[in-house]
């Protein structure tokens, strides 16, 4: 059976791996302890919502008011956590990707984690290695939600936008997909926050509550359009 999409463009954090609760939120709590000791950090749910809207950089710069020196320190703390902690892949996710690749699918990753960290997670979990990885970039215009990385994936693989699917759990992936003209589906298995769920259901071609449901759709074994 032919694949619905020849190229799968994946988010990484909270789509492939359970990393916000295991890595990114603890890093933020530590950064707040050091940089804003008199201010309590948002809850885990609140951290998801800040990443959803307005996005991590507007939150750090505008709401927390980090200056340039503090932002460098915040990034150092974050990278110390991402370098020392390896989050788990969601059950069945790697097996789904393995079967997708076996059938001829191409796999790219576009995330806000560093590319070398993303590849290290895949190497630690098994033999599957994405074809292309785009992660956190110092140039804002090259980071999601910019369409730049999605367009780079399509150009690198020689594919039209109509042959790709983006899978993401948050708003930046939807905005990137919209600008790049690529279909987008929602990974709903990492969190159940009503505001995020409602947005993703309204703006994605499909919302998958489980990895199994996504697998059925991706491999043509179910109809979730």
Note the main attributes of this structure.
single chain, 225 residues, six-stranded parallel beta sheet, 11% strand, globular
Q: What average pLDDT do the residues reach?
A: 95
> Quick one: CATH superfamily of the largest domain?
HAD superfamily/HAD-like
Distance between the termini: 18 Å
Describe the sheet with the most strands: 6 strands, parallel
How many strands?
A: 6
In the sheet with the most strands, the strands line up as: 3-2-1-4-5-6
Can you give a write-up of this model?
The chain folds into 2 domains: 7-19 and 88-218, HAD superfamily/HAD-like (Rossmann fold); 20-84. Helix content is 48%, strand content 11%. The chain has helices spanning 20-35, 44-52, 56-63, 68-84, 93-102, 115-125, 148-157, 171-180, 194-203, 211-218; strands at residues 7-10, 106-110, 132-134, 164-168, 183-187, 207-208. The protein has a 6-stranded parallel beta sheet, with helices on both faces. The longest helix has 17 residues, at 68-84. It is globular and about 55 Å long. The two termini are 18 Å apart.
Spell out the blueprint of helices and strands.
Blueprint: E1 7-10, H1 20-35, H2 44-52, H3 56-63, H4 68-84, H5 93-102, E2 106-110, H6 115-125, E3 132-134, H7 148-157, E4 164-168, H8 171-180, E5 183-187, H9 194-203, E6 207-208, H10 211-218
Parallel strand pairs: 1-2, 1-4, 2-3, 4-5, 5-6
Helix pairs in contact: 1-4
Structure summarized in a few sentences:
With 225 residues, this protein is of the alpha/beta class. It has two domains: 7-19 and 88-218, HAD superfamily/HAD-like (Rossmann fold, 3-Layer(aba) Sandwich), CATH 3.40.50; 20-84.
């Amino acid at each position: 059976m032919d694949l619905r999409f020849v190229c799968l463009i994946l988010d990484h954090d909270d789509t492939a791996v359970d990393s916000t609760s295991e890595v990114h939120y603890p890093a933020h709590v530590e950064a707040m302890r050091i940089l804003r000791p008199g201010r309590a950090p948002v809850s885990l749910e609140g951290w998801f919502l800040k990443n959803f809207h307005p996005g991590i950089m507007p939150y750090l710069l505008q709401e927390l008011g980090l200056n340039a020196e503090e932002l460098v320190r915040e990034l150092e703390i974050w990278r110390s956590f991402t370098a020392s902690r390896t989050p788990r892949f969601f059950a069945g996710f790697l097996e789904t990707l393995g079967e997708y690749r076996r059938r001829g699918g191409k796999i790219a990753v576009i995330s806000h984690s560093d590319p070398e960290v993303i590849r290290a997670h895949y190497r630690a979990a098994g033999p599957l290695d994405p074809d292309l990885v785009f992660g956190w970039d110092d140039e804002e215009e090259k980071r999601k939600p910019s369409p730049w990385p999605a367009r780079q994936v399509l150009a690198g693989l020689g594919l039209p936008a109509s042959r790709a699917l983006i899978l993401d759990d948050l708003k930046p992936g939807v905005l990137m997909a919209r600008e790049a003209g690529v279909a987008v589906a929602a990974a709903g298995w990492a969190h159940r926050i009503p505001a995020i769920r409602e947005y993703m259901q309204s703006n994605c071609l499909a919302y998958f509550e489980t990895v199994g449901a996504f697998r059925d759709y991706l491999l043509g074994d179910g109809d979730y359009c």
